[in-house]
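Here we describe the complex-level prediction in full. Unlike the single-chain runs in Section 2.1, the two entities below were treated as one system.
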Amino acid sequence: MAVQNTAMAEEVKLFGAWGSPYSRRVEMALELKGVPFEYIEENVSDDKLKSPSLLKYNPIHKKVPVLQHNGKPILESQIILEYIDETWKSNPILLQDPHERAMARFWAKFIEEKCMPPVWKALLGSRDERGKAMEEVRECLKTLESVLNGKNFFGGETIGLLDIAANFIAFWLRVIQEVSGLEFLTAEECPLLIKWCDRANAIAEHLPVECMPALWKAGWIPAENEREKAVEEACECLKTLDSALNGRRFFEKDTVGFVDMSA
Amino acid sequence: MGEENKVILHGMWASPFSKRVELALKLKGIPFEYVEEDLKNKSAEILHYNPVHKKIPVLVHNGKPIAESLVILEYIDETWKNNPRFLPQDPYKRARVRFWTSFVQQHLFETMFTVVKTDGEAQEKAVKELLEKLQVLEEGIKEFFPDGNICIDSNNVGLLDLVLLSVFGPYNVQEEVLGIKIIDMEKTPLVYSWLRAINQLPLVKESIPPHDKLAAVLKFMRENALKSSSA
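The structure predicted for the assembly as a whole is:
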């Protein structure tokens, strides 16, 4: 009897960046489905430092994440998520019903196009821009609160595509809030969403949360006198992360730049 | 079954996003009711069905609304499984179609938009970027037409064809209004032939708005944009 042992023949590689929500989404989906994969940490701060493989597989955008499956590259996190769901059928992240699927895709786009940009504007923009941007973010979060509609996850009882696509909100937004002092997500306005964040974070395997704010501070806080200390703390953190993650390489620079993220 | 499948498309005749959904429904032979929306005076239905973006197109299927043209196109393909299938069956090929669709939508369309809405140096820069990106597309689509033969008929039109058509289908109009060569037979022969092939499909020919009407809309858009940027 010939047994096709496809598991042995499968080669799955993920070119990612640990600080990128886009990259983390793909990791989450692979982990959720129990797909063994090789992870390659990319130095995304400079094109010259990116691996030849990444540049070969994504010559147009030169960005992470890139999923390589049996030699074939798949690009762009949303597209990769759909590919993963279509290829590995356990723990589906999209429901079968076309309307439910359309809703998940619609809201994933909403997060990407409407929620994320004003967060950056609030963080990096002028004082005038900040107020308006904060308002926009809060409106987005209120909308998501109503989309959640009391469910445990956007996907229902289990994590779905939208929960994964919303990882920026579950994890990164809280880091940004801590670092910047800007209050986007509040218990008064979005009590259910906050509980969802806790659930989503508990399921996904995360990097030591304590380290993220230090790294962000080093990258974002403009005051010169604070910067050196922040960078020092960040480098300590990187060493912690390095050992915590068993040999994943991290970029070693004395300044920490923000990760170049994939669309 | 017949009564159950009520499909309404809220659209706007000059919108490329609306046009691609309209064509998709016609290509699949799905009977639908079309509601022309006045974008300056949006109907209560649009505000109700798409409260987040308040935009067209919105597809309403058996009372349930779906917004965002690319989401709608995938919904149509998953709900009505007859030919043409907009996405291939193989997951890797699907990922490639989605990638290039995203490229056309997010990069080419956005840059084209900038070309329309600017002049002087800003426009020159946008045109240069547009032409460079068209070259990228030219190279990229070789994977879909490996022997250079473009064979498109109403049974195999796909997502990428629909999106490319909606952005550059009326390139003659765009070139006339802007006074710029965009789809050059010599520089991007594959893209040129591809557009020609899609434009020749009977359903496409009968759905494309008249040249003069489109030109008038494009001119109006451009004039408005230039006026407000210099105000």
